[in-house]
Amino acid sequence: MTVLDTNVLILLATGKLATQLPPQTYLVSVISKIEMLAFPRITAQEERALLDLIQDLTIVGLDDDVVAQAIQLKRATSLRLPDAIIAATAIVAQAELMTMDKGFLNVPGLRVTPAISIL
To answer: Helices 30-37 and 6-14: crossing angle, nearest 10°?
Structure first.
């Protein structure tokens, strides 16, 4: 199981992820959904592409376990709150986090899979 970070979702939606995702269960933090769709200059076409992409993924909300883990990560690391929630989502789900953000590499208890852009 893998949690897809916001940057990976954007790469997928724009066709810029260097590799195909292997078949498995993919999760998305509700924070990533908000980050993607709240972008001020998003076009209707981009919004549709992102919504089409995440419709087949499992959106994970904020439950007590994710909140508690995010609080611990926020206290122990320099992660911004959205990133702490995304990392907590992966840790609680016992999943890897696929991301291009190197800031996740030193998060205790988080397994990170680097994503590669074709740019």
So the answer is: 50
Q: Which CATH number characterizes residue 78's domain?
A: 3.40.50.1010
Q: Which residues of 11-40 are buried (b: 16+ CB within 10 A; e: fewer)?
A: bbbeeebeeeeeeeebbbbebbbebbeeee
Q: Residue 71 is encoded by which pair of tokens?
A: 């609080």
| 117, pLDDT greater than 80 | no
**What are the residues facing 98 on neighbouring strands?**
4, 113
Q: State the alpha helices, DSSP H only, in 1-119.
A: 6-14, 30-37, 44-54, 64-76, 81-92
Q: Is residue 18 part of a domain?
A: yes
In a domain, 79, yes or no: yes
Residues β-bridged to residue 27: 3, 58
- pLDDT tens-digit map of 27-78: 999 999 999 999 888 889 888 888 998 898 999 999 999 999 999 999 999 9
